[in-house]
Amino acid sequence: MSAVLQESALPLAPRVALRDVSLRYFTAAGETQALDRISLEVGAGEFVSLIGQSGCGKSTLLSLVAGILPPSSGEVRVDGVPVQGPSPRVGYMLQQDYLFEWRTILDNALLGAQIQQRDLKQARERAIHLLHKCGMGAFLHHYPRQLSGGMRQRVALARTLVTEPDVVLLDEPFSALDSQTRLAIADEVVDVLRSEGKSVLLVTHDIGEAIAMTDRVVVLSRRPGRIKSEFSMTFGGGKRPTPMQARARPEFNDYFRTLWDELDVHVEG
Ligand SMILES: Nc1ncnc2c1ncn2[C@@H]1O[C@H](COP(=O)(O)OP(=O)(O)OP(=O)(O)O)[C@@H](O)[C@H]1O
User: Fold this and answer.
1) Which residue among 21, 53, 58, 207 is best mutated to probe the pocket of ligand 1, counting the most ligand atoms within 8 A of its Cβ?
2) Same domain, yes or no, for 42 and 126?
3) In 163, 169, 208, 247, which residue has its Cα 20 to 30 A from 185's Cα atom?
4) Do residues 158 and 172 both lie within one domain?
5) Distance 15 CA to ligand 1 centre (A)
6) pLDDT in the model for residue 269
7) Ligand 1 center from residue 225 Cα (angstroms)
8) Does 212 lie in the same domain as 129?
9) From atom 16 of ligand 1, which residue's Cα is the shortest distance away?
10) 67 and 173 together in one domain
């Protein structure tokens, strides 16, 4: 009994942890230090966004968590386990949907499960469930060219979730969409990801998107990216508002001003 109590009293490892992580790229043109001693944690079910000037290393940081790049120094862990390569525990959704035009929507959603050689009967059930949840239930046997940009991104989200990752990395997932679609899809994506209990790391250039969609916003300095500051996005009134509701809250404008100042944007010329 006491052993059980002791065990449950142990603090849980954060879902994602970066400790003192630096990354240098080496090319024929020389060396680029992209990230410098980044320490960051994302808890289970937490949504965190990364903002910062172009080239400050946001996508590089996601690549480290995805196991696509090894850090030059420091360590990246997911659920306490060092990341040593891509893992099914981490899903990645990009700006481009990369749907295969010759596969139906359902077959596109099954792609990751096929690559990971999962039980396809179960994956198919899960894909159908997720496509319904993402509002794409009526389009299972359609082809990507028959869908709008927002619908294609919903399929990309379902495809990312079919393989049941605990962590979802979103790299500018809506930047190819028009502004109205962007607002609507942010609500839907957050709803699906929260209901699935995922931990999320979002890279965006859109300050409003960061405030509305995530619990914490991390601001990176200019290259080499260091953590400059971070802010919790709390809204009064109990239950967390949806992204669209958050935009109408008075706190939204306060956070926007603060983050704009932190970004220290200068227009060239
Ligand atoms: N494969 C690579 N080889 C060499 N340098 C690279 C490579 N990938 C990125 N870089 C450089 O590392 C720095 C960080 O790039 P990264 O794409 O992570 O920044 P970012 O903040 O995501 O940029 P953006 O907001 O423009 O997408 C940049 O100076 C970039 O040119």
Assistant:
1) 58
2) no
3) 163
4) no
5) 25
6) 54
7) 10
8) no
9) 57
10) yes
Find the domain containing 157 and state its range: 91-164
Pocket of ligand 1 (CB under 6 A): 25, 27, 32, 34, 52, 54-60, 223
Q: What's the pLDDT tens digit per position in 205-247?
A: 999 999 999 999 999 999 899 999 999 999 987 888 999 999 9
- The total of structural domains in the chain comes to 2
Residues 95-111: pLDDT tens digits? 888 899 999 999 999 99
Residue 203 is assigned to a structural domain of this protein:
yes
Question: Would you state the pLDDT for residue 133?
Answer: 86
Nearest CA to ligand 1 atom 5: 25
